[in-house]
Amino acid sequence: MFWRNRIALILVLLTFTAACSSSSEDAAAPPTVVPDATAEPTATTPAPTSSPTPPPAPTEPPPATEPPAPPPPTPVPTETPTPDSEPAQQPPVQLLNVYWLQGEDLAVSGGAVPTASPARAAIERLLSGPDFSDEQRGMETAIAEGVTLLGLTIRDGRAIVDLSPEFEAVSYGTAGELAMVAQLVFTVTQFPTVDSVDIWIDGVERDYILSHGLDAHDLTRENFYDQAPEILVEHPFAGQSVWAPFRVTGFSRTFESNVQWQLATDGEVIASGFTTANQPDVGRHGPFEFVVDLGDVDRSLLRTLQLTVFETSAEDGSTINAHVVPVFLNGSGPAPSPDVGVPFLRSDGIGPIDFGTPVDQARAILEETFGPPLRPASQIDCEGDTSSQLVWDQFQLNLSPEDTVEGWFYRFSDPPMTAASGLTPGTTLGDLVAAHPDVSFYRDTLSTEFLFSESADQIAGFVTDDGEHVVALYAGWTCFFR
């Protein structure tokens, strides 16, 4: 669910399926091109492509028959189109949560997804069940396999979720049924346009669902907080890549609404703080929010950190109800500005170095600015092709078997490099879109990626899991383990 150095590193990403079926929540949008996910490393350039499917060959029409009588209409949630809305040219990147179970309590995972239909994408991700990354963190689901989303309508704060009959094909006690409905309700009500949920089954409105007759109308989070832990962090989710400062949100039920937090690496606390949850009453859950601001951090901290949100026991001062969230810190502070004389990142090279330049010549040029590389060129095997990488801290040149520069991958350097437009890791997505209106986003097994044209070719990159910042750029020939 987060990525580190993606070159020559196998990662497991939470993959959302952002399907765009017709519903009032789904504005019309062009399909997003998603590269095939494979288990093997593949050599690639940053341009995802899709091939048109040829039309089927014409066939003889079937003989005319008496049409059968139409079946009686089935009540299905309907759409309310927005007459003045224009279809988006590119689906926005949006952060989606999905709510699972860890033991008997609700838990959260998520990711940034290019979609114009966030509620639909989140529900369908929930119905598909935990992926490998979720399972490695002990997340499970109480929802039966094979459940499909038949319809979704969001109107006046109410979401009508129409599910296939498999949703009721379970044999749980009351606690299990409450857990599965809680998963759905929390997943749908994460969006500000949804206050409550109605569950329909197979196109039919129901007053009660499941074998224990649970209510199917006006379901809110308040109905299911007993299925949640005392403290639950919703953002960031476990494994999320972040750029400091970053916002932490969740809900809790603690003594006097007190919530404490700390951020640590290898057991050393590097930041800590305190906040108060907005609990509506004693013994009831309420939301909390705080910001982690690290200022200028040492690059050695750009790694997985442990965020712990907890309360202190009123009896003995011990830490209780701790919720630990591993996060991957990609950087801190605003995006750096380009320095005079520092090479620019280009779609067909770096600074004066064109793709095809002999590695010894390229190395001599870059050493004038960045010093010697951290290690000699190392060979990798990428889909049967042997190539090399020359690495300076967090950027590298990708070399051909003939020892010429054919690509680059960049996270940061000292001094920093940028593209000609000023784009660099740390740039916000808003600034990225403003600088490159042609940018397109897509989701693959690594993360949410983007692609834009620049002069001779294209530059691509990755964004943080919250969909707010650029965290890496690459161009030319690359080798990713997907």
Throw out a few tags for this protein.
mainly beta, 5-stranded mixed β-sheet, 29 strands, single chain, 482 residues, 3 domains, Immunoglobulin-like, 8-stranded antiparallel β-sheet
Précis, in short:
The chain folds into three domains: 89-227, no CATH class; 246-332, Sandwich (Immunoglobulin-like), CATH 2.60.40; 345-481. 10% of the residues lie in helices and 37% in strands.
Describe this structure in words.
The structure is a single chain. Helices cover about 10% and strands about 35% of the residues. With about 475 residues, it is mainly beta. It folds into three domains: about 90-225, no CATH class; about 245-330, Immunoglobulin-like, CATH 2.60.40; about 345-480. The strands form eight sheets. The chain has an eight-stranded antiparallel sheet with strand order 21-22-23-24-28-27-26-25, covered by helices on one side. A five-stranded mixed sheet has the order 11-17-16-13-14, with no helix packed on it. A hairpin with a 6-residue loop joins strand 27 and strand 28. Helix 1 (about 120-125) packs antiparallel against helix 3. The longest helix is centred in the middle third of the chain and has 15 residues, at about 175-190. The chain is globular and about 75 Å long. It starts with about 40 loop residues before the first strand and ends with a strand.
Strand elements, count: 29
Question: Would you identify the regions where 5 or more consecutive residues have pLDDT less than 50?
Answer: 1-23, 26-88
Overall form:
globular
How big a fraction of the residues is strand?
35-45%
Radius of gyration: 25 Å
